[in-house]
Amino acid sequence: MAPLFVGLRAGAPGREADLDFYAESVRDLWHADRPIAGTLERVRRLERFPELRPREEAITDVVGTYAFFAALCLRYALLAHGSGNADDAVSCGHAALTAMGMLDQNMAGAGFLADEQRLQSLSVRGDASGLWDASVTAGRERLRAVWGRLPR
Predict the structure, then answer these.
(1) CA-wise closest residue to 139 among 73, 48, 52
(2) CA 48, CA 150: separation in Å to the nearest integer?
(3) CA distance 44 to 40
(4) Within 13 Å, how many C-alpha atoms sit on residue 78's CB side?
(5) What's the CA gap between 137 and 41, in Å, rounded?
(6) From first to last of its 152 residues, what are the pLDDT tens digits of the chain?
(7) pTM here?
């Protein structure tokens, strides 16, 4: 989900610090065996992102939708890492699966949901070999697909 957030918000005025924060947090999460300093403060900072702020109207645009799900995934991933709470990990996985299911519904013949299920399965089994490369590839494909849905 990280490539979606970074790719969809890159170049947005005033978001440089948010992009750096997002990328740093994802980098730190890849080191699952290490504690992350200030996890709750990171969550609070993330909750101040426009994507996670309460609003009057629903998010209906393509960019807003996938940036929201990417921010939500990071929120739950940080909470799960900080607390070890399985419910937060499940919520993270659910948000990613929901986003990929929506993408599949909007693209004929897409298999993003199945790919996300496969990645989550590898992660849960504890077999991290190849997970980084597979995640990077999946992220690029997701970003290309979402860009392809944007009006020209």
Answers:
(1) 73
(2) 26
(3) 6
(4) 26
(5) 30
(6) 999 999 999 999 999 999 999 999 999 998 878 889 899 999 999 999 999 999 999 898 999 999 999 999 999 999 999 988 999 999 999 999 999 999 999 888 899 999 999 999 988 887 677 888 999 999 999 999 999 988 87
(7) 0.93
How far, in Å, CA of 148 to CA of 110, rounded?
A: 13
**CB atoms inside a 10 Å sphere around CB 82:** 16
Query: Quick one: CA torsion of 148, 107, 96, 141, rounded to 10 degrees?
Result: -50
Q: The tokens 């939500």 sit on which residue?
A: 72
Tokens of 60: 């209906």
- For 83, the token pair is 């607390």
Token digits of residue 87: 């419910």
